[in-house]
Amino acid sequence: MARYTGPVCRLCRREGLKLYLKGERCYTDKCALDRRSYAPGQHGQYSRRKPSEYGLQLREKQKARRIYGVLERQFRNYFVKAARQKGITGENLIQFLERRLDNVVYRLGFAASRAEARQLVTHNHFTLNGHKANIPSILVKEGDLIQVKEKSLNSPKFIELKENLAHKTPPEWLDVDKENMTGRVVALPEKEHLDFPLEEHLIVELYSR
Predict the structure, then answer these.
(1) Cα distance between the two ends of the chain
(2) How many C-beta neighbours within 10 Å does residue 78 have?
(3) 114 is a domain residue
(4) 184 touches 145 (CB < 8 A)
(5) Residue 91 and residue 108 in one domain
(6) Domain of 45: which CATH number?
(7) Do residues 91 and 22 share a domain?
(8) In the Cβ-directed half-sphere of 172, how many Cα atoms lie within 13 Å?
(9) Residue 51 and residue 97: Cα distance in Å, rounded?
């Protein structure tokens, strides 16, 4: 299973935006973007060139792709599916990305970051509607039930996550039982439910060139 394995703090610095790829660390003074807010590389600190229209479109696509931990081919496949569906392509794309199981686990508060959610899903810590679910890219649908496996609840990791749940609020399209660490999809996600700013029309324009 392909995934990015390089230093993730460089990705935040390149986009000039906190992507919250390292969980709780991103909220502390150890955040690399707070210490070095310029782009990585030899000339990152001195580059003041105004980005072109294509550059703006590319950066928006890269930002979305990196936040969700999706590689280029898979991201483009999501766009193709979104374009074939009825409705607005950009909003359809957002729904596909938000409905990924690893993202849902993160948004429920069952992981500190999307990368950690991806790892926990891969390691068989969750069930979907009572069945084994260890593929991060599974797309959930309205009415689906996500549960932490009973044998995982007593592990130190999930005990810590459960304690942190008290400080987290899931988006409106998800309902969470913090005591039993279960979550249900009560509606389909919309753009206003995103936890970061995204101009999806730029991504549509990029792939429509």
Answers:
(1) 30
(2) 22
(3) yes
(4) yes
(5) no
(6) 1.10.1050.10
(7) yes
(8) 6
(9) 26
**84 part of a folded domain:** yes
Helix/strand number for the chain, H first, E second:
10, 5
Q: Average pLDDT, stretch 69-90?
A: 95
Same domain? 89 vs 104? no
Backbone angle region of 92, left / alpha / beta, with phi > 0 → left and psi within -120 to 50 → alpha = alpha
Q: Amino acid identity of 106?
A: Y
Position 24 confidence tier, pLDDT thresholds 50, 70, 90: low
List the structure tokens of 151: 């044998």
pLDDT interval class at 43 (50, 70, 90):
very low
Of 158, 200, 177, 197, nearest in space to 20 by CA: 197
Q: What is the pLDDT of residue 45?
A: 56
Q: What are phi and psi of 13, to 5 degrees?
A: -65, -35
Residues 91 and 107 in one domain: no
**Distance between CA 65 and CA 88 in Å, rounded?**
19
Largest CA distance in the chain: 54
Cβ contact 57:205 at 8 Å:
yes
Report the number of distinct structural domains present in the chain.
2
| Residue 135 structural domain | 100-185
Q: Give this prediction's pTM.
A: 0.81
Q: Give, as one character, the DSSP assignment of residue 130.
A: T
**CATH number assigned to the domain comprising residue 180:** 3.10.290.10
Q: In this structure, what token pair is assigned to residue 150?
A: 């009973």
Per residue in 172-193, pLDDT tens?
Answer: 999 999 999 999 999 999 999 9
